[in-house]
Write a structure and sequence with these properties.
Keywords: ATP-binding, Cell membrane, Membrane, Nucleotide-binding, Repeat, Sugar transport, Translocase, Transport. With 499 residues, the chain is α/β, with parallel strands linked by helices. Helix content is 33%, strand content 24%.
Amino acid sequence: MLEMKGIRKAFGPVKVLHGVDLEVRAGEVHALLGENGAGKSTMMKILCGIVHADEGTIVIDGNERSFEHYDEAIQAGVGIVFQEFSLIPYLTAVENIFLAREIKTGGFLARKAMRKRAREVLDKLGVDVPLNVPVADLSVAEQQFVEIAKALSLDARILVLDEPTATLTPSETEHLFKVMRDLRSQGVAIVFISHHLEEIYEIGDRITVLRDGEYVGTRDVGSISTDELVEMMVGRRIENNFPPKPPAAPNAEVVIDAAQIQLRKNGPVSTFQLRRGEILGFAGLVGSGRTETALSILGAYPAASVKVEINGTPGAPANPSEALARGIGLLPESRKDQGLITSFSIMQNVSINNYGKYRTLKFFLDLSEERKHTTKVIKDVQVKAPGPDVPVDTLSGGNQQKVVIARWLNHHTPILIFDEPTRGIDVGAKSEIYHLMRQLTEEGYSIIMISSELPEVMGLSDRVCVFRSGAIVATIEGDEITSEDIMKHATTGKLRYVA
């Protein structure tokens, strides 16, 4: 159904695609894999007319096509779910799904018809998303389903799904896979991009791998092992994805002592401690209160009650600025929306919390001092970029995460909260982030890691706090951590209340 031949693309002096080929058959799920920066998303944007190739051809059903913009691709039966949401936050789910394709009767919007069609598509996905509230008020997972529904409503014959499961729970992912199987049986050609290799083996038929903008190969899913696939993607074997854990240190200094965190009035209560030099995992289902609990310590979430000591000083920070002054840094769940100013350079993002110490006079910055400090910390965390003046939005996801980490190291925040630190990051970059986190704890940093990936929680955490219904229901020690225990506590753990 689809052939892309000899696709080349450069942005200025940076060559992104070097004559890449892709062939997708009708009625198959074709996985497109590669590390961040391999060119996968650019390839798909070229298919959809969002980016124009410098060279190469696109053939659909035997006919060569060239799309000037996305509307032309839609008319040709091509739909895409973008890795970065393309929703307008102050419009409702219905308005986003039918944006620029509104159903009209006699020149007026047919709101009931659009609402009915939107509900049908979301029912097909097996989810109940509020239709009449701004999508800004929806959870990240609900926004993801609106994005998917938007593409499904096109009745596309070629459907591109770029990291569609990044924010979904296992049960929500299974709903999506059921829809993908139904579409496959109807002859739809699906291009599926994911960094979760287990998903590729569950839903994929064939795999095409890109590396550094070049075509590496295409294989049937059943003919290649995980190790072989990783080696195709990164050009080397990754023997130890998770660094070894240090011996347990129960007598280590307590840097956060949370005696009571109650997210809502009359709700359940959490209690935990974070020790110096450890990675404390926060696990649980989406919506279980993991992120809210961490943000309440920063003064960024209005919890009903927060009784906490930080480095022996009682009282929670009133706001994130005070938390920063007390040595706490946050790598947020959405790095592009909340963690970075993407139009700024690497150096500007790293030093933005530290301009006070670079002043030469009252209103001037010592740029050489700024460059010296930021260049060192960028090198320490191994950001891969031509130099510190490169805009952050040109970096891969893994390198963007490293820039956020570099900012907090530059600010000397010994307590770090990492919320979904490897979301949307390829397997090679994940390993680098894991080793960097362990290196930081060896240097005396303390990390709270919030993650929806159970292998990540088990492989990296020294201890794990399991959440259910807004509170911690169990804390599991390192060698005792199993996925079965985490899920048991996450679904049936006993909540604790105080008078």
